Amino acid sequence: MKSSWGNVKIVTSKYDTLVYGCPRKKYTRSHPYPTNTNRFNPLPREKAAIIILRKKGYPINMISKVLGRSTSFVHRTLRTAITRLTLRVIDMRKLPSRTRTYTSGFRWRKLLSLWSAWEQFILGETDRPP
Question: What Å distances lie between residue 41 and 7, 36, 38, 46, 119, CA to CA?
Answer without folding.
Answer: 45, 12, 10, 10, 16
